[in-house]
């Protein structure tokens, strides 16, 4: 008998493209300035850090294709169930399909078997879809890297998992980041933990402020990451009570504090 | 030689055999209330009301394996549709009318290979506004009926008729509490009627041995329900129109049902 709650199997049988790698003949973009080929819009930097009541995710709003800004109101931190967020970086097209896939797969499982899929099961499902995208990623399109954050109701704490392009999964004790600006800020996380305090001991507003500082640095050092001069970033928390967006007024307040502390945004001409 | 007469006779036999098996099924009541839709039944052991998709739920009487097969099939179809198109494209009209009904009809009518399903199902779908609320009842032969406000399934036609009579003109301004109460009373009328039909079929002297024979009808209903609740459990679920989650289904817990079970104990 077929497995009842196997969405992947259903989609394979119906021929849905999410389950199929593109043929090797798909033309590859000629160079990074954009030549012939497929436009593959990318999400840039996403950050997740723990705090005393759970996890907070922060992302800028920019989506780019080569050197073009495709969209400046992108949402890159997306709920996949009541207690789980997926922060996405890399190919938007693939990542959005994966978010929809996971939402549907988790619901299908729960409604079929009348119990929620375990955290391990959800992590494995995400690894499977990352892996399925490898042939495309090798051709230079469709690659994406997710960060999965959740509130573990058994352990009573937030948890952060990050992936590589092959689908390997790692758990982080304090923080995670992905996307084009993430490499530039990697050491800053460690600096904060070593000189201030671990993220999991911070209040929400402390953690939010550090995460926004990190995003600001990423925007300074990475051409593709958007700052907040034009559009506010988005921040979302997961706690024992579930997922909640940080209110715009809170974001505005913290962003204003950072701006004030950083001095003049536009340096005087020499 | 195979004649049209044989066909009619064969279908008739099938119908009788399935009706016989359905007769004792615990009825299910669907009612609209101010905040959405509810389904209610009284069960012995197995859970009977299930979520299908974000805005759809279902319950059925019949053979457990058949109910489970239909449940899994419709959940699968809904999720595949919800992913390949969008959650907005998942509707009972499509699921019942275009997916389940033809399959049931085929299984019922195919005398050579098909094994007919023993099932009678009640589906509910909550809309964005009251006008979008809908119930579907689906029979083992693929026949389905759409209704608004109220719908019931029971083991016999007469039980269903009496239940709908008891509910009367559906009133959508009911509170959830009022709707649960109306649904439970309708359930009790249907369950008692189905039982009566069976006992009458079993024994000619049923009217004499019926323990409730000296009570007037409403009193008899009350005593019957009280006895049923000693051995059975009220199960009810709602689809709530307003909610932050995509999924509008909620199985009501002990606290939600405390008031109505207390009232009829």
Strand content of chain B: 15-25%
Mean pLDDT of chain A: 89
- pLDDT < 50 runs, ≥5 residues of chain A: none
Give the proportion of residues in helices of chain B. 40-55%
Structural class of chain A: alpha+beta
Mean pLDDT of chain B: 91
- CATH third-level topology of chain A: Glutamine Phosphoribosylpyrophosphate, subunit 1, domain 1
Most extensive contact: A-B, 16 and 16 residues
What is the CATH first-level class name of chain A?
Alpha Beta
Overall shape of chain B: it is: flat
Strand order, sheet with most strands of chain B: 8-1-2-9-10
Q: Determine the CATH superfamily of chain A.
A: Aminohydrolase, N-terminal nucleophile (Ntn) domain
Determine the N-to-C terminus distance of chain B: 60 Å
Helical segment count of chain B: 8
Give the SSE string of chain B: HEEEEHHEEEEHHHHEEH
Task: Give me the count of strands of chain A.
Answer: 13
Give the full name of the CATH homologous superfamily of chain B.
Aminohydrolase, N-terminal nucleophile (Ntn) domain
Q: From the coordinates shown, what is the CATH architecture of chain A?
A: 4-Layer Sandwich
Radius of gyration of chain A: 19 Å
Uncertain residue segments of chain B: none
What is the radius of gyration of chain B?
A: 19 Å
């Amino acid at each position: 008998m077929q497995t009842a709650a196997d969405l992947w199997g259903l989609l394979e049988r119906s021929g849905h493209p999410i389950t199929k790698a593109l043929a090797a003949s798909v033309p590859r973009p000629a160079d990074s300035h954009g030549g012939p080929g497929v436009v593959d819009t990318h999400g840039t930097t996403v950050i997740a850090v723990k705090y005393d009541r759970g996890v907070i995710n922060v992302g800028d709003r920019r989506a780019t294709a080569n050197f073009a800004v495709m969209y400046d109101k992108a949402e890159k931190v997306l709920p996949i169930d009541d207690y789980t967020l997926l922060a996405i970086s890399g190919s938007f097209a693939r990542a959005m399909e994966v978010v929809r896939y996971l939402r549907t797969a988790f619901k299908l499982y729960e409604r079929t078997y009348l119990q929620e899929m375990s955290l391990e099961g959800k992590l494995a499902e995400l690894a499977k879809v990352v892996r399925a995208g490898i042939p495309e990623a090798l051709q230079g399109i469709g690659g994406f890297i997710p960060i999965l954050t959740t509130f573990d109701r058994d352990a009573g704490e937030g948890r952060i998992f990050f992936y590589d392009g092959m689908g390997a999964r790692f758990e982080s004790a304090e923080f995670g980041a992905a996307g084009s600006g993430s490499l530039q800020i990697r050491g800053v996380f460690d600096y904060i933990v070593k000189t201030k305090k671990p993220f999991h001991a911070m209040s929400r507003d402390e953690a939010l402020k550090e995460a926004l500082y990190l995003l600001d640095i990423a925007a300074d050092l990475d051409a593709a990451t958007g700052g907040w001069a034009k559009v506010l970033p988005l921040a979302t928390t997961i706690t024992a009570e579930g997922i909640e967006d940080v209110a715009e007024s809170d974001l505005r307040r913290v962003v204003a504090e950072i701006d004030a502390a950083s001095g003049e945004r536009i340096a005087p001409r020499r | 030689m195979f004649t049209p007469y044989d066909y009619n006779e064969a279908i008739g036999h099938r119908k009788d055999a399935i009706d016989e098996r359905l007769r004792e099924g615990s009825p299910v009541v669907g009612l609209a209330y101010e905040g959405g839709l509810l389904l209610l039944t009284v069960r012995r052991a197995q859970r009977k009301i299930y979520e299908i998709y974000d805005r759809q739920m279902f319950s059925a009487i019949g053979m457990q394996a058949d109910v489970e097969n239909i449940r899994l099939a419709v959940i699968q179809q809904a999720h595949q549709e919800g992913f390949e198109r969008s959650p907005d494209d998942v509707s009972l009209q499509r699921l019942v009318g275009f997916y389940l009904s033809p399959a049931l009809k085929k299984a019922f009518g195919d005398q050579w290979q098909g094994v007919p399903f023993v099932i009678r199902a009640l589906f509910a779908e909550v809309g964005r506004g009251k006008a979008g609320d809908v119930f579907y009842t689906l029979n083992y032969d693929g026949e389905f009926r759409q209704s608004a406000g109220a719908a019931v399934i029971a083991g016999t036609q007469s039980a269903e008729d009496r239940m709908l009579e008891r509910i009367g003109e559906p009133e959508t301004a009911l509170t959830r509490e009022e709707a649960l109460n109306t649904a439970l009373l309708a359930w009790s009328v249907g369950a008692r009627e189905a039982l009566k039909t069976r006992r009458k079929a079993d024994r000619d002297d049923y009217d004499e041995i019926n323990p409730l024979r000296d009570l007037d009808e409403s009193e008899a209903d009350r005593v019957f329900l009280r006895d049923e609740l000693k051995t059975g459990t009220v199960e009810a679920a709602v689809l709530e129109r307003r909610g932050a989650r995509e999924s509008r289904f909620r199985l009501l817990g002990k606290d939600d049902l405390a008031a109505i079970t207390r009232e009829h104990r």
